[in-house]
C-alpha cells in the first residue's frame, strides 16, 4: 500500500471508513466487520476512521479490540461534536444536535478513549461545528487534550476554509475531512487550495459517492430491500434523482472498462490523483470490497484518463443534494 502523510505520520493512501459497519448501510455484521478490520491491517491499510456518533458509540466499541491487539499498526481517527438524542442509533434522526463546546470536547474525548480502550487517539476531529461556538474556543480545548497526551493530532470535518484558517492559527490542524468524489467536488472551490497552503491533509470521505460509483446500484428498490438509509435519506438515491445519476455512473463505467479496472477503483484513483495531500477513506464492511478498494492505490491514471473521468461527471449534472436538508444545515460552518 502506497503511503501518504498526516502531520508527518505515514498513512495508507487508501484508508478505511468504518461508519457503515455499525449504521445506515443495512444490518450490522460485527463478525464480518472484525475480519475486515484485521484484513485491512494485513494489507497495510493502517488508517481507520470512526466517530462517537457512529452507532451511538457502537462503532468505537467494535474497533476497540482490534486496535488494542494491533495498536502499533493503526493510525486511529475518531470524532466528536454530533450529539444524538437518547436511544438513537445514528444521526439521521430528529433531535440530533451539534455541540462543539470546550466542555463537550473534553467529555467526548474521555468517552471515546473508554470505548476504544486506548490511552491515545492519533487524530481527533471536530465532526461538525456549531457556529455559535467560536472555533478558537473549541480548538483551544482540543489542544489541551494534545497537551494531556490523550490526542496526538487535531482535525476538522466539513468546515469552511475560513474556519480552517482560524483554527490553524490556534493549534496546527493535521487534517480536514471532507466529502470528495467525482460526485462531490465542492472542496475544489477553495478548501483544497487552503489545505495545500497550510500543509493540511485532506481526508476524502465517501470517495465513491456513498456507493453510487461502484456501479452496483440499480434502483431504490434494491436499497429498500436491504434496509439501507440511502433509499429514503440520501437525495441522490431518490427515485427522482437516481436515474439521472446512474447515467453518469455508466459513463464512468465505460472509462473504467478501458482502463481495465472497476468503476470504484477508477473513482478512487481519480481522488488520489488530485494531489499528494489527499488521502481517501472508502467505507466497507465486506472483504471483497476492501480488497477491490485497496487495489486502487496501485492505479496511476494518465492525464487523458483523468480528464475523461472528470468529464464523465460534470459538476452541474449530478442530481440531488449530498445530504437531506436537516443534515445540510450542519455543513460548511
UniProtKB/TrEMBL annotation:
This is Oxidoreductase. It comes from the Bacteria. GO terms for cellular component: cytoplasm. PANTHER family: AFLATOXIN B1 ALDEHYDE REDUCTASE (PTHR43625), ALDO-KETO REDUCTASE YAKC [NADP(+)] (PTHR43625:SF40). PROSITE patterns: PROKAR_LIPOPROTEIN. It comes from Phytohabitans flavus. Keywords: Oxidoreductase. GO terms for molecular function: oxidoreductase activity. Residues 13-312 form the NADP-dependent oxidoreductase domain. The lineage of its organism: Bacteria, Bacillati, Actinomycetota, Actinomycetes, Micromonosporales. Transmembrane segments: none annotated.
Amino acid at each position: 500500500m502506497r503511503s501518504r502523510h498526516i502531520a508527518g505520520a505515514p498513512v495508507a493512501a487508501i484508508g478505511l471508513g468504518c461508519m457503515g459497519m455499525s449504521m445506515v448501510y443495512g444490518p450490522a455484521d460485527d463478525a464480518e466487520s472484525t475480519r475486515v478490520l484485521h484484513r485491512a491491517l494485513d494489507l497495510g491499510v493502517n488508517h481507520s476512521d470512526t466517530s462517537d456518533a457512529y452507532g451511538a458509540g457502537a462503532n468505537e466499541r467494535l474497533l476497540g479490540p482490534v486496535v488494542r491487539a494491533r495498536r502499533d499498526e493503526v493510525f486511529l481517527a475518531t470524532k466528536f461534536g454530533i450529539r444524538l438524542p437518547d436511544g438513537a442509533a445514528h444521526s439521521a434522526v430528529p433531535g440530533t444536535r451539534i455541540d462543539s463546546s470546550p466542555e463537550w470536547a473534553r467529555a467526548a474525548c474521555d468517552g471515546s478513549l473508554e470505548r476504544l480502550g486506548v490511552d491515545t487517539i492519533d487524530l481527533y476531529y471536530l465532526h461538525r461545528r456549531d457556529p455559535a461556538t467560536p472555533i478558537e474556543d473549541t480548538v483551544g480545548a482540543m489542544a489541551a487534550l494534545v497537551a494531556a497526551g490523550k490526542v496526538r493530532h487535531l482535525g476538522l470535518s466539513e468546515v469552511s476554509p475560513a474556519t480552517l484558517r482560524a483554527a490553524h492559527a490556534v493549534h496546527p490542524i493535521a487534517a480536514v475531512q471532507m466529502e470528495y468524489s467525482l460526485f462531490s467536488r465542492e472542496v475544489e472551490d477553495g478548501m483544497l487550495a487552503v489545505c495545500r497552503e497550510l500543509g493540511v491533509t485532506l481526508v476524502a470521505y465517501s470517495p465513491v459517492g456513498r456507493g453510487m460509483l461502484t456501479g452496483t446500484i440499480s434502483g431504490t428498490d434494491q436499497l429498500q430491500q436491504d434496509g439501507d438509509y440511502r433509499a429514503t435519506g440520501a437525495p441522490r438515491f431518490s427515485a427522482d434523482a437516481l436515474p439521472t445519476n446512474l447515467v453518469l455512473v455508466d459513463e464512468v463505467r465505460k472509462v473504467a472498462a478501458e482502463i481495465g479496472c472497476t468503476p470504484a477503483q477508477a473513482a478512487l484513483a481519480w481522488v488520489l490523483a488530485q494531489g499528494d495531500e489527499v488521502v481517501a477513506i472508502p467505507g466497507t464492511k465486506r472483504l471483497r470490497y476492501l480488497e477491490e478498494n485497496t487495489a486502487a492505490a496501485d492505479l496511476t491514471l494518465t492525464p487523458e484518463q483523468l480528464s475523461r473521468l472528470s468529464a464523465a461527471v460534470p459538476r452541474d449534472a449530478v442530481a440531488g443534494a449530498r445530504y437531506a436538508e436537516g443534515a445540510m444545515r450542519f455543513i460548511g460552518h
